[in-house]
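User: I need a structural model of Adenosylhomocysteinase from Methanoplanus limicola DSM 2279 for a docking pre-check later this week. Nothing fancy, just the predicted structure tokens so I can convert them on my end. Input:
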Amino acid sequence: MKSGELKMGWARQYMPVLGEIRKKFEAEKPLAGQKIGMALHIEAKTAVLVETLAAGGAEVYITGCNPLSTQDDVAEALDRVKGVHCYAQRACSNEDYYAAIDKVLDQNPTVTIDDGMDLIHRLHTGRRELLDNIVGGCEETTTGIHRLRAMAADGALEFPVIAVNDTPMKRCFDNVHGTGESALSAVMITTNSLIGGKWFVVAGYGYCGRGLAKMAHGLGAKVVVTEIDPRRALEAHMDGYHVMSMAEAAKIGDIFVTTTGNTSVISEKDFRNMKDGVILSNAGHFNVEIDIPWLEANKDGYEARDSIETYIIDNKRINILAEGRLVNLATMKGMGHPIEVMDLSFALQALCSDYILREGPGLTGGVYEVPNEIDVSVASIKLKSLGVEIDRLTEEQEHYMNSWDIGT
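Assistant: Understood. Predicted structure tokens for Adenosylhomocysteinase:
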């Protein structure tokens, strides 16, 4: 058995929720006759999702959503799965990256599954002739949802898209535990640097930032949070972290991880204030949070070790991990989120794909929440796989919770 298949087999044994969905899909074939176009991180957990969709009868066309997150052996293994066609290649040029996006769209898909919205963006800006065939889509990550909501607000989003990222079973597990564990693990493995006792700066205190701060604190780091939202800043303060501006954090930080989804979070003025040997990384989707173009244009760099580029600024070494791309997947040792976490997120993707095919024709263009029954069903399947039982409301309790006229 080749390495790609071995990785997929390893992931499959720790993904019981998708396993249950796959059994249902194999029996019922709810996706028969459909073409699903995907742009996701090509690694073993994603491959299990793709297998599940193919088992449901779909023809699946997939490429990467980040030039450095593809594992070539998994991409090759996916291409050997019946009904699956994979076009991704690690470390491809931007030109080849978007050429692969076009190859997916050339197949005229009926459903899109995105991580970052590149497929949907390309459909609306360069492949509009394909829009009439699209029933709907699903979006995996925070950055993609931000872009989609901006499109919808402008009246530019022409088909319904399920905001998979925004449902509790995604945010509370994938974003908090997944990003928290995998980003921190990637930083440690890539740098071989101690976390305990360091000033660890987390830019952004959304769900991803909260998870990362919690994990770093657990390893003994002195955690700093930077924020633009006063409510989240106050929450970070009440959670016990140091809260300050990036201008102040730049002076003391040893390790930085950005999680904002925004651009130029760390820029020239911050680089010049930083310590010698500082480590900078990004856990947001796109490589825009750290101003890499300024570094490349103004300072000489050299590869210090795998996935670390060092730039000399004012006689100080600034170390950038994975070109400022998604650190938990783009480093040479990055494996992405833990398998059990992605089992939940990809279960949502599979069920939402089925849902959008059934309900999409009756929906207008826009961003839609994951139906509550899908979110709850994923949690229920997971609890069953763990052997965990929970309580249920009695008839009396249901009546009480649904009434307004019962006094104290």
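Before docking, keep this in mind: The first strand starts at residue 35 and ends at 39.
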